Amino acid sequence: MTPAQLLEALVGTASVSGSEDAVSGFVAKQLATMGFKPRQEGLNVWFEVGHGGPRLLFVSHLDTVPPCAGWSTDPFKPHWEGESLHGLGANDAKGCVAAMILAAQMLASGEVGAEGTAVFAFVREEERGGLGIQELLPRLGRLDAAVVGEPTGLKVCAAQRGMLVLQCAAKGVSAHVAHAKLGENAIHKAARDMVKLESLAFDAHPLLGTTRPVVTQVSGGLARNQVPDLCEFVVDLRTTPNLSDDEVVARLSAELQSRVSVLASGYRPMATDPGHTIVKAALKAAGAKVPVGSDTTSDWAFLGELPAVKAGPGDTMRSHRPNEWLSLKELNAGTKFYAALAREFFRLKALEAVHG
Ligand SMILES: [Zn+2]
Questions:
Q1: What average pLDDT does the structure give for the chain?
Q2: According to the model, what pLDDT value does residue 354 have?
Q3: What was the pLDDT predicted at 114?
Q4: What percentage of the chain exceeds 90 in pLDDT?
Q5: How far is the CA of 259 from the centre of ligand 1 (A)?
Q6: At 26, phi and psi to the nearest 5?
Q7: Cβ-contact 127, 17 below 8 angstroms
Q8: Residue 169 Cα, ligand 1 centroid: separation in angstroms?
Q9: Up-side HSE of residue 331: CA atoms within 13 Å toward CB?
Q10: What spacing in Å lies between the alpha carbon of 298 and ligand 1's midpoint?
């Protein structure tokens, strides 16, 4: 299979989150054909290249979001426009999966085995909660660092935002609107809090900037002629690693009149020291000087303390949108990048081992 055929076959195998059977089977079969020894655990697929030495994880996801409105062609039928493949998941993240598989081939044909082990993992359900990586991670053995494959234009992300969703409830007192003074208007109270949220300043992270609270849903009021006694609103915060979720909740609880409770958390904000070997190796492979921060979350959120970077071919701005695509040029650059990253990581680790 050529790189173009591999990408087309991956994109042509539908894998909306929760329905990864076909793509998981295809990837396992393809890897076996290439001479690897893939293991399928549930619908996750993983394999190793090399043995011994430091262990570097390459992880990306097999699933896609469901197709959104606005596609000009069938999202499940990949088609080429010149050198670009259009289809659901081409950019997020089957281009990364293809590039990792092709990089594994490059590594397997070279000298990498003596210096370290590259562990490749392609997981399910990244798009709806990271179940795949959470079930597979404990089975991968010791790991020294990780590369998370997501479309970043091969920019090296050494930090990514987390997600914290809060439910806020403003309580008031009901009254007939004609006697509004007898009541306390919960919607007005919530509105004051929402305005205040816009002006709250959080400490900035060097790569990510500040945590930004965004009000995304509001509900309140039972009748046109009644002062409302309850108004609830949802605040979605894309958090930064310099503030814990608890600190954010405490801050909002102190500043707002509404009662604040956690609706969803678990997508931790992540960051790796820019001086860490994995960041240095990724920057060298990318030909870049400095890492960047990423506004979107990913399976990195579930890697715990494992030092990691997020990088891959494609563009995050094309993700979860109609007419998603990836060019062959991007795919090939991604392949070379992942292979070079592994080699450089193992080279630096060997130097560290010599020099202590
Ligand atoms: Zn993705």
A1: 96
A2: 87
A3: 63
A4: 95
A5: 34
A6: -60, -45
A7: yes
A8: 33
A9: 26
A10: 7
Q: Per the structure block, which two tokens stand in for 193?
A: 């809090």
For residue 289, give Cα distances in angstroms to 173, 185, 204. Answer: 58, 54, 22
Q: How far is the CA of 312 from the centre of ligand 1 (A)?
A: 10
Q: What is the pTM of this model?
A: 0.93
Question: In whole angstroms, what is the distance from residue 298 CA to residue 173 CA?
Answer: 43
Q: For residues 81 and 267, what is the distance between their CA atoms, to the nearest angstrom?
A: 36
Q: How far apart (Å, rounded) are the C-alpha atoms in residues 14 and 19?
A: 8
Beta strands across the sheet bearing 79-81 = 79-81, 84-86, 325-327
Q: Distance from the CA of 150 to the center of ligand 1, in angstroms?
A: 5
The pLDDT value recorded for residue 115 is: 87
Q: Residue 225 pLDDT more than 90?
A: yes
CA 140 – ligand 1 centroid, Å: 21
pLDDT score, position 266: 86
Q: pLDDT, tens digit, for every residue of 141-182?
A: 999 999 999 999 999 999 999 999 999 999 999 999 999 999
Average pLDDT of the residues in 82-104:
97
pLDDT at 106 over 70: yes
Residue among 27, 10, 135, 100 at smallest CA distance from 64: 10
C-alpha 355 to ligand 1 mean position (Å) = 38
**How much distance in Å is there from the Cα of 96 to the middle of ligand 1?**
9
d(CA 104, CA 188): 59
Here the tokens at position 95 are 């281009």
DSSP state of 90: I
Question: What's the CA gap between 318 and 188, in Å, rounded?
Answer: 39
C-alpha R_g of the chain: 23
